[in-house]
Amino acid sequence: MSPALALGQIIHEIVENLSQLPTDQRFKKSLLVTLKERWPKITGLKGGFTSEAQEQRFFQRGETMLSKVMANPGPLTKLAVKLKADLPYYWLSESEELILCGKLDWLEYLADTDSVHIIDFKTSKTEEKTDSLQLPIYYLLAKNCQKRPIFKMSYWYLEFGEGLTEKPLPDPSEATTELLKIGKQMKLARQLDRFRCPNGTAGCQACQPFERILLGEGKLVGTTTDGRRDIYILASASDPNPNVDESVIL
C-alpha cells in the first residue's frame, strides 16, 4: 500500500459507484461528503500514510479531483451500462484455457447509436503510456461481455485534466493476438514454475516492492476488508519532511 494507491482506490470507488444511482440522484449528495465518510477506510498506516501532514495533502488532492468532477460531471449525468458480473470475464482461448477478466470503470450509454463509450478514470499525475494494454483489454471485455458496439474510448485524468481525452479504438484482432501471446507466456511460466523477469536480475517496478517485503523490509499494517490479503507498507512510503509540499516540473 502507498498513499497514491490508497487515494486512487477511494476516488475510483466513489466515482464508479455513481453508476448504481439513477441519473437524477447521482449528485444530490456532495462527493466531498462521501470522501470524508469513506476516508477512514484508508486513514493512517492503512493507506500508507506515515504523517498527518502527508495524509492531509493526499486528502486535499482527493477533494480537488472530486470538486472538478462535480463542476463538470459530463457523462456521469447520463445513462450508464452496468455489467451484471462483479468481475466481467470471457474465454480469450478455450483451447489454451485462458480467461480474460477485469473491471471497467464506466460505460456511458449512447442512445443515438445504441452503443457504449468506455471511460477509464485516472488519478495519477502522468498520462498513460501509448503502448499500455489497458484500453485494449477494456475494449475486448466490453465487446465480449455485453451486446452493444463500442463507439469510442476515453481516459479521464482527474488530477490534471479538464475533461475526457479520447483515444483511438484498438484493432480487436491485434489486441487478441498480443494478449494471447502474453497469456501463453504466463501459462507456461506457471506450468514450469519458472518466473524469469524480462529485465533480468535488475527486476522491475512491479515486483521490487514484493521482493522487499520478502526481505523483511515491509511493515504489516492490516488486511483487506475480505481478510484474504495482507497490507504492507515500505520504508520508502515515509514522509521525512511533512512541511514540504509535493511538486512537479512542467
Shape: globular
Q: How many angstroms separate the termini?
A: 27 Å
> What do the pLDDT scores average to?
90
Number of helices: 6
The strand count comes to 8
**Radius of gyration from CA coordinates:** 20 Å
Q: What is the H/E order?
A: HHHEEEEHEEHHEE
Binned strand content: 15-25%
Question: Biggest sheet: strands, sense, closure?
Answer: 4 strands, mixed
In order across it, which strands form the biggest sheet?
A: 3-4-5-6
Domain count: 2
Helix content: 25-40%
Poorly predicted regions: 237-250
Secondary-structure-derived class = alpha+beta
Features of this protein?
250 residues, alpha+beta, 2 domains, four-stranded mixed beta sheet, 6 helices, globular
Quick recap of the structure?
With 250 residues, the protein is an alpha+beta fold.
Q: In words, what does this structure look like?
A:
- There is one protein chain.
- With 250 residues, this protein is α+β, with helices and mostly antiparallel strands.
- It has 2 domains: 3-76 and 218-237, no CATH class; 78-192.
- Helix content is 33%, strand content 17%.
- It has helices spanning 3-16, 31-38, 52-71, 134-145, 172-192, 208-214; strands at residues 89-93, 98-101, 106-110, 115-122, 150-157, 164-167, 219-223, 230-233.
- It has a 4-stranded mixed β-sheet. Strands 1-2 form a two-stranded antiparallel sheet. A two-stranded antiparallel sheet has the order 7-8.
- The longest helix has 21 residues, at 172-192.
- The chain starts with a helix and ends in a 17-residue tail after the last strand.
- The relative contact order is 0.13.
